[in-house]
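Obj: model holo form, ligand = S-adenosylmethionine.
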Amino acid sequence: MQEQLPTLEQLWLDTLNWTPSGEVLCQFQKLYELILEKNQQLNLTKITQPLEFWEKHLWDSLAAVVGVFEQQKLKAIDIGTGAGFPGLPISFAYPTWQLTLVDSTKKKVNFLAELKEKMLLKNIEPLAARIEELGQDPLYREQYDLVLIRAVAQESACAEYALPLLKIGGSAILYRGQWSEDQTQNLCQVSAKLGGEINSLKSLSTPVSGSTRNCVYLKKTKSTSLEYPRAIGVPTHSPLLS
Ligand code: SAM
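Output (holo structure tokens):
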């Protein structure tokens, strides 16, 4: 028998002033089942218990977006999406958005392509690529309203990956755990080199385990120099410094 995810509608409402529709609840459950099944062959996630999955994958993905971005049409890209987080829960909650889900690990992207077919998802596009290459490709560079990035690299590299992909006026969300004033200072200066700035910072305590979540919102204010992103591996090995 498949494990059942909790629905926790009241907790969604209390924490995000939002509740998933019946259809979205079914999509959450199906996603959970497909990930558990695939996890037997491929290491997609260590978070497999129903309540933990609800908090760390579903709630966490949506908490940074709900009530902040409510446009009807929006072109987003989730970079280093892994098993589809935070992009997939967002694609369920915002069916009119278009989301590109990128990862360099082909097996994970193949899983996302299977899932797209099995769940009849029209608004996601799984893509196997390195972010450093996409950022220099005119088909992707400066094409997005929103960039999502969770658990991929330290903050300077995240900014170097995210800002070249954004249109001027677009936003990036860096999903971070602990966050310090020094990191804010560093990110502020690094973002300026890349044509962006820190727009805001939202600190949250997650509703089940009380973990710390910081959402850092960047805004693109001018075009990014063609120097960035640098070649594959350089943003993480030689991070831009303030
Ligand atoms: N974002 C997902 C999450 O929070 O569950 C997955 C996080 S996982 C720790 C990091 C993912 O980023 C891996 O799947 C890895 O393949 C991908 N990744 C890291 N660097 C990348 C790069 N330069 N280009 C594309 N994908 C990258």
